Amino acid sequence: MPLQIETEKDFDLEDLQYDFEDSMETDRWNDAPAEIKELFHLLEWNIIDGEHGDTVGFINEALKATVTARTLIAGPMATGIAEVGRRFKMDEYFLPEVMMSAKCMHEALAVLKPLIIAEKSEEVGTVVVGTVQGDLHDIGKKIVAMMLEAAGFTVHDLGVTVPPEKFIEAIREHKPQIVGFSALLTTTMNMQWETLKVITAEGLREELKVFVGGAPISQAWCDKIGADAYGADALIAVDKAKACVTRLSNLKGGAPELHAAMLDIDREREEAKAEAAAAAGAG
Ligand code: B1M
Q: Relative to the CA of 143, which ligand 1 atom is closest?
């Protein structure tokens, strides 16, 4: 039986500004056995410190203790890299430090990917994903691609800095039901719009459900550019993708009903989270 550890909570990460001992004092991962809580904080600090030589060791230790790959990605790996982002924003970290932390994430994902893909259920559809032109960030997109594969999709990942014409080529070749654009920079998010315009101009819009995601992306941006779905994280992106190829498969890309159905999925998730939080509070 894999260990169940809460990762959906919006944790306070202030301790990550200080040191490992401060992290051990917080109530984050308190539902895990003591040695796993410690291991999770070690992994967070490993990513923050960019000590990539040790990352795989921590990951393997956690897997041996029956922690799932998903828990590691949504848990300590997510909180560790979030703190790296904060430090970068506050000019406490510069590119070399961020690159070391990114290396930790990549090494961990290389170990976890086969485990996630092994969960692959029956084939449900095809997705083309890529990080838009000018943007080199791919950690989040890789996670989304892995989770989609585990959910039964064949995923064609076009990589980073993908120009619109490469998306078009891949759409013509692989005939996906869904295309997803990732963008992490405010200066490249506009390429999602540009790529969508090219898709429309090529007459492919109605055949495709268009997903957008990445740190600066929001539902408002998704609405503004006329995309079908915003994926705040990999889990919600997968839920929406599954709905697109099953109960909503008859709706065309760009249809208002599709857009509304995607918002319903967000609402359902918020309600489920609120219910879980209320139940935890009562318990
Ligand atoms: Co960069 N970087 N970076 N960076 N970097 C950010 C994005 C930044 C917010 C940092 C900061 O200031 N706090 C900032 C952008 C600011 C802005 O635009 N407003 C920034 C900057 C400025 C830059 C450079 C310009 C720095 C420079 O050169 N001066 C440069 C740009 C290079 C380029 O792209 N042309 C740069 C470079 C880099 C590195 C190469 C060092 C490295 C990337 C390594 C790599 O990806 N291979 C890097 C990193 C690691 C980051 C931060 C710290 C972490 C990003 C990350 O991996 N997050 C980041 C800070 C931050 O995001 N807060 C930052 C973890 C990941 C799991 O989350 O990607 O959001 P995320 O993915 C999530 C969801 O967004 C969603 O699901 C994922 C999983 O849950 N999602 C999708 C993502 N894509 C989706 C697609 C979908 C659906 C959902 O549809 C299919």
A: 79
